[in-house]
Amino acid sequence: MTKPSKRRYAIEFGAALLAYAAAVLITVPIIQANPDAAWRVPVALIPLVPSTLALAAVLRFVRTLDEFQQRIQLEGLALAFLDTMLLTLAYGFLENAGLPRPSLIWVAPLMIVLWGFGVGIAAWRYRA
Predict the structure, then answer these.
(1) Amino acid 4: pLDDT
(2) pLDDT tier at 1, thresholds 50, 70, 90
(3) Burial of 16: CB neighbours in 10 Å, binned 0-12, 13-18, 19+
(4) Which end of the chain has the lower number of beta carbons within 10 A, N or C?
(5) How far apart (Å, rounded) are the C-alpha atoms in residues 72 and 122?
C-alpha cells in the first residue's frame, strides 16, 4: 500500500461520504414534505449514488493492498458477514417474542462496525 493510494482513497471516500450526507439531508425533508408524491421512491434512492461511489473507493483501495493485507480484510469481512447474519437471525427470533421491528437501514452500519472489529481481530491474530 503506497502513500498515494491511501491519499486517493481518503479523498474519494471522504467526498463520497460528504455527498451521501448531503443527499440524505436534502432528500429526507423533501420526501417527508411530499408523502403522496409519485416521485418520492426514486428520490429516496438518490443517496445510493454516493454510497456506490464510496463502495467503489473501498474496492479500489483493497486492490492496492498486498496479499497479506487483503487476507486481513477478507477475514474482517467474513467475520462481519457471519456476525451480522447471526445477529439479524437472533433478532428475528426475538421479534417473535414481541421486540419491535427495527429499520433495515441499520444493517449496513452494523456490518461496517463489525468489519472494523473483524479487521482488528485478524490483524491482532497475525501480529508479528
Answers:
(1) 86
(2) low
(3) buried
(4) C
(5) 5
What is the rounded radius of gyration, in angstroms, for the C-alpha atoms of the chain?
A: 18
- Distance in Å from the first CA to the final CA of the chain: 18
Are residues 66 and 1 in contact, defined by beta-carbon separation less than 8 angstroms?
yes
Q: Are 72 and 122 in contact (CB under 8 A)?
A: yes
Using DSSP's 3-state secondary structure scheme, residue 119 falls into helix
Please give the C-alpha separations between residue 46 and each of 9, 10, 57, 64, in angstroms, as whole numbers: 22, 22, 18, 29
User: Rounded distance, CA 103 to CA 18, Å?
Assistant: 23
**pTM for the full model?**
0.83
Q: Which of these, 54, 47, 43, 42, lies nearest to 11 by C-alpha position?
A: 54
- Looking from the CA of 15 toward its CB, the CA atoms found within 13 Å total 8
Residue 65 DSSP class = S
Q: Where are the alpha helices (DSSP H) in the chain?
A: 3-33, 40-44, 48-64, 67-96, 107-125
